[in-house]
Structure formats: structure tokens, C-alpha cells
Task: inverse folding
């Protein structure tokens, strides 16, 4: 397996390395909240000796409803992420949705994420791979809900055909199963690792119930918050090299995917447990 490194921060991911924590907000709401969440999670990870990368989206382009909150947009959102980096000295991970956004996002984010719904879009994959490789960052590619784990080989080959030196991580976030439901097959984690790249688990989005939020009569995505820790722990036990989590000081008030978001107050206990499991698995 490849061991990847963000040299500026001394963060590595791969077998035999520390558990990498990508955690923060689902979507940027305001800079003050982003700074608060980053400060708390950075302190927890420092205490636990876990590598930390702050996560937040500046735009959520795949909302169920046109009226759903999407975020501040690139013009306001990328400067917010830059401000968090400057204050706390941590790398950031964020996503993008269109090929012409790749260079601007890679200028700010050390880890650029290909959304699951878009991971087969060739123009986006090529542009993102090239932009990330030029900056020496990581390409965090989410396995689409409709792909088998081994089908991710095509994501890797396409990215490397565009940029041979690109550093790639695969991320599981569940597979569509019946109506309004996602299921995570933990056997998929070692299958994706067989492709020679590190694998992370997006435990937050894997508990989504797409189009099934009773609060909005299906106009937004529901979720099973209580399942996040179950999936995160199971994924680390199955060999995942990193975990992807979303927190909020007041999760029920989060402007996006509130039913899947964890309370910030739960972060230390969960991350402590995940570290212990990771150390046992080795």
C-alpha cells in the first residue's frame, strides 16, 4: 500500500501509521463556528496524538430541495477555510463540484475531495487530479453509492492517467440499498485497500437516509446519528486508515444533514475509542 504524506504538516496515512482524523462541519455556516469547531477538535487530537485535518464544505450542490442551505459559496467559503488554516495551523479538506473549480480549491485545501455522486465524471476527476498533484496534496475520492469496492480501480487509474504522481485515498460512505437507505459492507474496506491506496470511512454520510427526513416530508435527507460511532468503530476494526466525521456544537440546529451530525461534546470519547481500536488492529 502507498503511504501518503502532507510534508508541510508531517501527516502520513497508510498501514502502520497513526489514525488520520478528518473532522469538522458538514458545511460552513459562518467563520466563527468554523474556528470554534476546529479549535476544539485540534485540541482533542493533539491530546490523543492523532493527526488532524479540518473538514468543511463551502457548497453542498446535491441538496434534495432547491431551497436547502448550500453554504457560503466559493468566493466566501475558501477565504473562511484559509482563515481557519492560518489561525490553527492545520490542513483542510473540502470538496468541489465542477472542473473549473479545481485549481482554486487545491490552492487552499491540502486534501481535495471528489464527491461520491461525481466520482465517475471524467472532466472533474482529471482536473482535480492534476490540480492536487501540482500542489502535492491528497485526492480524497469517495466511493459512489452505486459502485462495488473493486470498481474503484477505475477511479485510481483515471486519476493517475491524468496525473501520474497524484496521491489518492479512497473513502467508503455506504452503498444504496432499497429505498431511502444506505448499507456499509465492512468487507469493502479491505477490498479497496487491495487496490494499493489508503482507505477512510465517512461514518457521518453513511448513516444518511436520502430523501427521508420526516421534518420536511422528504424534502431533505434524514439520518441515524446513533449509528455514526458504530460504523466508525467497525471501519477502524476492518482496517481503515482514517476516519471522516462531522460535528456541531448544536447538531439539531445544523443547517445541513442535522440528523447525521454528532454533538461536538461527543468527539473526545469517540476519537479516544477509535484510537484504541486502531492500535489493537495495528
Result:
Amino acid at each position: 500500500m502507498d503511504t501518503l504524506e502532507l510534508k508541510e504538516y508531517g501527516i502520513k496515512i497508510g498501514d502502520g501509521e497513526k489514525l488520520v482524523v478528518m473532522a469538522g462541519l458538514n458545511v460552513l455556516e459562518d467563520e466563527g463556528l468554523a474556528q470554534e469547531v476546529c479549535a476544539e477538535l485540534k485540541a482533542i487530537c493533539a491530546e490523543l496524538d492523532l493527526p488532524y485535518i479540518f473538514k468543511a464544505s463551502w457548497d453542498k450542490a446535491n441538496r434534495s430541495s432547491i431551497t436547502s442551505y448550500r453554504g457560503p459559496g466559493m468566493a466566501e467559503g475558501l477565504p473562511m477555510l484559509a482563515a481557519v488554516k492560518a489561525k490553527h495551523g492545520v490542513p483542510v479538506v473540502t470538496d468541489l463540484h465542477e472542473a473549473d473549480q479545481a485549481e482554486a480549491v487545491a490552492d487552499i485545501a491540502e486534501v481535495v475531495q471528489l464527491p461520491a455522486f461525481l466520482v465517475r465524471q471524467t472532466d472533474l476527476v482529471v482536473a482535480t487530479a492534476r490540480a492536487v498533484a501540482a500542489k502535492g496534496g491528497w485526492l480524497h475520492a469517495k466511493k459512489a453509492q452505486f459502485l462495488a469496492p473493486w470498481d474503484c480501480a477505475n477511479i485510481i487509474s483515471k486519476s493517475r492517467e491524468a496525473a501520474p504522481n497524484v496521491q489518492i485515498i479512497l473513502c467508503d460512505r455506504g452503498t444504496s440499498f432499497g429505498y431511502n437507505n444506505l448499507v456499509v459492507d465492512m468487507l469493502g474496506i479491505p477490498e479497496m485497500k487491495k487496490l494499493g491506496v489508503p482507505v477512510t470511512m465517512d461514518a457521518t454520510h453513511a448513516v444518511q437516509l436520502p430523501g427521508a427526513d420526516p421534518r420536511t416530508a422528504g424534502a431533505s435527507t434524514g439520518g441515524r446519528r446513533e449509528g455514526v460511532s458504530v460504523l466508525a468503530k467497525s471501519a477502524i476494526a476492518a482496517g481503515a486508515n482514517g476516519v471522516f466525521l462531522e460535528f456541531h456544537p448544536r447538531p439539531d440546529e445544523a443547517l445541513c444533514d442535522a440528523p447525521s451530525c454528532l454533538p461536538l461534546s461527543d468527539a473526545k470519547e469517540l476519537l479516544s475509542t477509535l484510537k484504541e481500536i486502531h492500535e489493537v488492529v495495528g
Remarks:
- The longest helix spans residues 31-48.
- The domain at 19-281 is CATH 3.20.20.70 (TIM Barrel).
- The chain has one domain: 19-281.
- The helical segments are 31-48, 74-88, 102-108, 122-135, 153-162, 188-193, 228-237, 267-281.
